[in-house]
């Protein structure tokens, strides 16, 4: 388990939600192969949808670019081990 080893790069999430994001990511890495980024992302998204309501998005990988609009207070980008994690709730238009 890599819990406590995450490094936040950017966020506007409340601290408690940040801690949960990193904890969920760490525990998810114990469930899936580190190369199965799609399953890791799907599991984290499901956890966030269950805890905080639907509409969450999750991107996991070691090399990706992105451009998105998110709801205020719902964005975090961090790395844990060799993977980067981007979690956010999409903005309602």
Task: Walk me through this protein's architecture.
It is globular and about 35 Å long. It has helices at residues 15-31, 37-52, and strands spanning 7-11, 56-61, 76-80, 83-89. It starts with 6 loop residues before the first strand and ends with a strand. The mean pLDDT is 91. By secondary structure, it is α+β, with helices and mostly antiparallel strands. The longest helix has 17 residues, at 15-31. Helix 1 (15-31) packs across helix 2. Strand 3 and strand 4 (83-89) form a beta hairpin. Belongs to the dynein light chain family.
Secondary structure: elements and pairs:
Blueprint: E1 7-11, H1 15-31, H2 37-52, E2 56-61, E3 76-80, E4 83-89
Antiparallel strand pairs: 1-3, 2-4, 3-4
